[in-house]
């Protein structure tokens, strides 16, 4: 016993001796053999946040500090292809879409795959058994489409226009349902089968991380989730699920993300090399496998037992042109997926006067097709979409509805929407909760009439609640609503002097999330939110 | 006990050695390019990325040092190398693309001398089960236990007929509806895809090298499906080869690579037991062509073609050299079945005609 204590003390002393010099300086020292100290800026996909805990060791071993900024896959691809990433490197789950864009094929000087994770279907164990899919290697995407159409499979999947996992799933499912042997062309797209398939989608998200959390919140009303194998494995290991997800690798094929690290600035080649060599070293590959549940990219590191061997997993071909990919995304948004109902609860109180209200106007008008950027093409209002504006100040002024049949910017309905937004004027107090209650009443009434719409609320405010219903009034009312109405998430936008805690509470209770318009421009925030609507 | 003591001794030796290495590195760094009093000539080059493991090999670095050189290399796609050298011929001492057409073009543009220290035949990474299935369907031949040959004329027929794996006779091993299709890289950026096009163009042109613009246009039209049916293609040969090694038969049933990649992977024990190499018949050689752009660059060309140590090291990275004994020795030492002599090898069309076919099929880079 005493020996053990003394040993323990020795270890503490040694550790102290080893770590002491680290504390004395500003930054921790580098390892022997590390290269010259430098910093590389990186534009990365949010799904790579789980690698962040390893970056201190990267810096220690190689001398290279990574300074990471996160954004969505499509926005990243757009910026890189226009040479406007503004960073030395880029790191997303895939660079396939980027390489299809004009100027995208040669935007990166070089690219190296760091790890791999296929996009697969995770099905609740009991549901998998009921469908006869448990342990069955012959399940196809066609089977999944049939189960969805029969109402036997309700699943979550990210928005293909904003997240790579949803995009990979869309492309893979379209190829599999087409039954063609080769890369998809426009003629192969099968609208009826795809509409069947997406009739089962009951949850969407702008990122795979949010999808994961939202699935946990709603696990009792969902049967499955399409996501990266790594996300599904980590979730199964997390104790957050009442029932584990069985991973299904459809027999007709999957699409695998390969997480390429792209070098954008040729002058940073040396530091890039050091980073790549470190990331692909056997030790780091092993660590990535253990800590992020992704498969190693280098063939020298063996797969651990959580991963099924890949011999039987057919990799589906990916389209060879941007035209086919874009056509698929637009058809998904306008035709295949469930129709959407977007309710905007908008603060027009006195404090919005000036720049704030004009920001709000341009953000909303941007969604009517006035913005011609690549990201705007997929974030503007869609065919079959209902838009409800709930402007408020001291009370709810006037609720107006717009039903989009034609999503082109010059359609009468979008022109009318623009006119309504241009007519916004600021003045009066701030009745946040009264307005929110009115929005949920509208959602409840509409869903009772037609439950097929995917409904969500956006709440934008620049201040605190000053009049009308209180937070508690709203919460009590919310809890009294039908389950369908309670499933409607509210995405809150932190703007101006809004109260972060109040907005966080609303988002948490309703299953939404908070967007910060302090660090991002309001039009960009609205585009991000479109990924969740 | 004895073992433990020896282990301690070894560790101590390693620590001492590391100290010496650090001391040497520090002293060298301190005296600039000095090397124990002797100055190293720094040569800068631009080369295809598949040669990075060769230039990074400490034994190669040492062989260069002994000859008085330190070699610094930037890596780029072979077509990109042509463009960069054309833009600024003085930026580098040597260019080292992986194909003869690009090397010849650079030599012509710069009047530099060219050397071919090593080369590698184009080959198809596949799986024994699939190769045997192709043999049973009379599309391929077995050369030996580990090496096969694919009849490219018959393969082109398959592509034209949209034949699927599930339609091959007696297929119980890979019953998928995917096309029988070789995965290549992006024609716009990668030399291995260009070499694949070169050998296909020979077959499509009734066993003749494409030699004029009109024929090039016709042949490009004919060969387009072999590339467009693949859909998205990756930018460099490392990508699909890693997918093959890592993802297995489902991911990449047949992948067009350099023989050197496969041999090096075998030596590194990263191939699985069912993986075999199948040579297209005819095949083409990727001739790694060094063009000297300065006196130093030329000297490096002479060194690489004449220095036995460096040639032996090239063989260690899977490359073939004019003297076959290096490759044989490498195969023997690593327990790899010796790669076969290849007789049916065709030369690629000129750079200009290759460019035309590539643009016809895949458009311009950056488009």
Give a short overview:
The complex is a heterodimer of chains A (533) and B (367). By secondary structure, chain A is an alpha/beta fold. Helix content of chain A is 42%, strand content 17%.
The CATH class of the largest domain in chain B is identified as Alpha Beta
Separate helix tally of chain B: 15
- Please give the largest β-sheet of chain A: 7 strands, mixed
Tell me which protein chains meet in the greatest interface and how many residues each side has: A-B, 43 and 44 residues
CATH topology of the largest domain in chain A: Rossmann fold
Would you count the extended β strands of chain B for me? 12
Q: Considering the protein shown, what is the CATH homologous superfamily of the largest domain in chain A? A: von Willebrand factor, type A domain
Intertermini distance of chain A: 62 Å
CATH architecture call of the largest domain in chain B: 3-Layer(aba) Sandwich
Q: How many domains make up the 3D coordinates of chain A?
A: 3
Q: Radius of gyration of chain A in whole Å, from Cα? A: 25 Å
C-alpha termini separation of chain B: 67 Å
CA radius of gyration of chain B is 22 Å
Q: CATH class of the largest domain in chain A, anyone?
A: Alpha Beta
Report the portion of residues of chain B in β strands: 15-25%
Give the overall pLDDT of chain B as a whole number: 88
Please state roughly what percent of the residues of chain A sit in beta strands, choosing from under 5%, 5-15%, 15-25%, 25-35%, 35-45% or over 45%.
Answer: 15-25%
Low-pLDDT stretches of chain B are: 1-5, 19-36
Counting helices, strands and paired strands, the structural category of chain B is: alpha/beta
Which sequence of SSEs, written as H and E, runs from N to C of chain B?
HEEEHHEHEHEHEEHHHHEHEEHHHEH
């Amino acid at each position: 016993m005493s020996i053990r204590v003394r040993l323990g003390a020795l270890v503490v002393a040694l550790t102290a001796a080893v770590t002491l010099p680290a504390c004395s300086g500003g930054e921790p020292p580098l390892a022997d053999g590390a290269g010259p100290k430098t910093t590389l800026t990186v534009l990365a996909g949010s799904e790579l946040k789980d690698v962040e805990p390893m970056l201190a060791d990267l810096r220690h071993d190689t001398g290279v500090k990574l300074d990471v900024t996160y954004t969505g896959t499509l926005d990243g691809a757009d910026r890189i292809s226009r040479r406007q990433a503004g960073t030395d490197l880029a790191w997303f789950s895939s660079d396939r879409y980027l390489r299809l864009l004009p100027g995208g094929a040669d935007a990166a000087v070089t690219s190296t795959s760091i790890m791999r994770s296929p996009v697969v279907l995770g099905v609740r164990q009991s549901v998998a058994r009921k469908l006869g899919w448990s342990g069955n290697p012959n399940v196809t995407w066609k089977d999944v489409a049939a189960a969805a159409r029969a109402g036997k499979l309700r699943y979550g999947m990210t928005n293909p226009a904003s997240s790579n996992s949803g995009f990979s799933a869309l492309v893979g499912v379209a190829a599999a349902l087409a039954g063609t042997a080769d890369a998809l062309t426009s003629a192969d797209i099968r609208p009826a089968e795809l509409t069947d398939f997406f009739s089962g989608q009951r949850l969407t998200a702008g990122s795979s991380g949010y999808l994961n959390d939202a699935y946990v919140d709603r696990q009792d009303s969902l049967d499955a989730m399409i996501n990266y194998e790594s996300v599904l494995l980590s979730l199964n290991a997390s104790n957050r699920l009442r029932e584990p997800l069985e991973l299904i690798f459809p027999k007709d094929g999957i699409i695998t993300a390969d997480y390429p690290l792209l070098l954008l600035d040729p002058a940073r080649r040396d530091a890039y090399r050091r980073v790549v060599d470190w990331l692909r070293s056997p030790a780091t590959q092993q660590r990535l496998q253990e800590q992020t549940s992704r498969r190693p990219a280098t063939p020298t590191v063996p797969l651990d037992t959580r991963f099924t061997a890949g011999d039987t997993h057919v990799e589906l071909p990916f389209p060879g042109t941007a035209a086919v990919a874009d056509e698929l995304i637009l058809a998904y948004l306008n035709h295949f997926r469930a129709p959407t109902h977007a309710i905007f609860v908008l603060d027009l109180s006195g404090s919005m006067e000036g720049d704030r209200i004009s920001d709000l106007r341009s953000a909303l008008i941007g969604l009517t097709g006035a913005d011609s950027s690549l990201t705007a093409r997929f974030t503007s209002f869609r065919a079959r979409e209902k838009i409800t504006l709930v402007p408020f100040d001291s009370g709810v002024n006037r609720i107006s509805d717009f039903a989009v049949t034609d999503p082109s910017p010059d359609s009468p309905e979008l022109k009318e929407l623009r006119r309504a937004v241009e007519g916004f004027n600021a003045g009066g107090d701030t009745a946040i909760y009264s307005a929110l209650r009115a929005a949920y009443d509208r959602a409840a009434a509409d869903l009772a009439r037609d439950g097929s719409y995917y409904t969500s609320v956006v709440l934008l405010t620049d201040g605190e609640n000053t009049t009308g219903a209180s937070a508690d009034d709203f919460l009590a009312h919310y809890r009294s609503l039908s389950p369908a109405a309670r499933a409607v998430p509210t995405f809150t936008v932190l703007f101006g002097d809004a109260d972060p805690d109040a907005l966080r509470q609303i988002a948490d209770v309703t299953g939404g999330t908070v967007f910060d318009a302090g660090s991002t421009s309001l039009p960009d925030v609205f585009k991000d939110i479109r990924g969740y609507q | 006990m004895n073992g433990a003591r020896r282990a301690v001794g070894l560790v101590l030796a390693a620590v001492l050695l590391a100290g010496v290495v650090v001391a040497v590195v520090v002293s060298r760094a301190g005296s600039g390019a000095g090397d124990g009093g002797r100055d190293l000539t720094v040569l800068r080059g631009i080369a295809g990325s598949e040669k990075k493991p060769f230039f990074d090999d400490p034994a190669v670095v040492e062989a260069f040092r002994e000859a008085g050189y330190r070699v610094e290399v930037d890596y780029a796609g072979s077509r990109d190398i042509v463009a960069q050298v054309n833009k600024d011929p003085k930026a580098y001492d040597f260019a080292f693309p992986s194909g003869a057409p690009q090397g010849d073009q650079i030599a012509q543009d710069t009047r530099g001398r060219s050397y071919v220290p090593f080369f590698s035949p184009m080959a198809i990474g596949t799986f024994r089960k699939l190769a045997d299935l192709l043999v049973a369907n009379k599309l391929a031949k077995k050369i030996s236990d580990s090496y096969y040959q694919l009849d490219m004329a018959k393969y082109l027929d398959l592509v034209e007929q949209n034949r699927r794996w599930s339609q091959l006779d007696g297929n119980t091993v890979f019953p998928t509806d995917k096309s029988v299709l070789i995965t290549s890289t992006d024609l716009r950026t990668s030399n291995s895809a260009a070499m694949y096009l070169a050998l296909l163009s020979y077959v499509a042109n009734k066993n003749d090298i494409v030699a004029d613009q009109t024929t090039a246009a016709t042949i490009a039209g004919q060969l387009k499906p072999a590339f467009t049916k693949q859909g998205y293609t990756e930018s460099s040969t490392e990508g699909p080869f890693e997918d093959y090694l890592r993802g297995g038969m489902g991911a990449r049933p047949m992948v067009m690579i350099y023989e050197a990649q496969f041999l090096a992977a075998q030596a590194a024990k990263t191939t699985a037991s069912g993986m075999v190499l199948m040579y297209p018949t005819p095949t083409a050689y990727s001739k790694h062509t060094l063009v000297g752009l300065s006196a130093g660059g030329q000297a490096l060309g002479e060194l690489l073609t004449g220095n036995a140590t460096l040639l032996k090291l090239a063989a260690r990275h899977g490359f073939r050299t004019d003297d076959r004994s290096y490759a044989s020795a490498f195969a023997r030492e690593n327990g790899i079945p010796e790669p076969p002599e290849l007789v049916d090898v065709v030369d690629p069309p000129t750079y200009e005609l290759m460019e035309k076919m590539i643009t016809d099929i895949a458009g311009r880079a950056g488009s």
